[in-house]
Design a protein that fits this description.
Length: 216
């Protein structure tokens, strides 16, 4: 299954590049710099919604059942989510320089996304520092729930505060205002990054399982 996911992710990423650079038209206002959206938005979507949702559910299941499988899934998802969140912030800064005129500003969306990233880091540090695996998993499950509760703050930050960042174009009431070719390219890349996330998580879960078996 992992091999299949890897190949599907590779095909999806290749298709996303074709859609983003060859099929989708040049954006009228921002020009070609807008094409970084096909990397930035999927990374943010997977990190903030997919990874955090998996962490939330797995953490609740672990607290309820003490399932090692759920704990490993939360752990792996947090590792991949941290990487994707960091890359989303980095690509957002690259996009922000030509459009906003600065690499960084204490914008509400950027600040809340950075808080989410730091929570990911704190989660992983907690995992690494605890000596007792069971205690580590228990504390991490609680922090995983707190981590996931940051997502609404990130999502609604563009509505609750004045911000340079544009409001959501997809996860909002009403139809999308994005042109169909751009939307098709965006969805292709989002699907590709979901597959890439799934591949990384399944690989990491397998490694965590082997590490646990060797430690016994």
């Amino acid at each position: 299954m992992r091999t299949t996911l890897g190949w599907l992710a590779a095909v999806g990423l290749a298709a996303g590049l074709v859609m983003g650079f060859l099929v989708a038209p040049r954006e009228v206002t921002q020009g070609n710099v807008q094409r970084i959206m096909y990397l930035h938005v999927p990374l943010a979507f997977v990190a903030e919604y997919v990874a955090c949702a998996i962490i939330l559910v797995s953490s609740v299941v672990y607290i309820w059942t003490r399932s090692e499988r759920a704990d490993r899934l939360a752990h792996a998802s947090a590792e991949v989510g941290a990487v994707f969140t960091g890359l989303a912030i980095a690509t957002g800064s690259i996009w922000g320089k030509p459009t906003w005129g600065t690499w960084w500003t204490w914008d509400a969306r950027l600040t809340t996304a950075s808080i989410l990233f730091l929570t990911f880091v704190a989660y992983l540090l907690l995992r690494a520092m605890a000596d007792d695996p069971e205690q580590s998993a228990r504390y991490a499950a609680v922090l995983g729930i707190v981590l996931a509760l940051n997502v609404p703050l990130v999502h609604f930050s563009v509505y609750w505060w004045r911000t340079l960042h544009q409001p959501p174009s997809l996860l909002k009431p009403g139809p999308s205002t994005i042109a169909a070719p751009i939307l098709a390219a965006l969805f292709t890349n989002m699907a590709a990054y979901v597959l890439l996330y799934a591949y990384f998580v399944t690989r990491r879960v397998g490694l965590l399982r082997r590490e646990a078996e060797e430690a016994r």
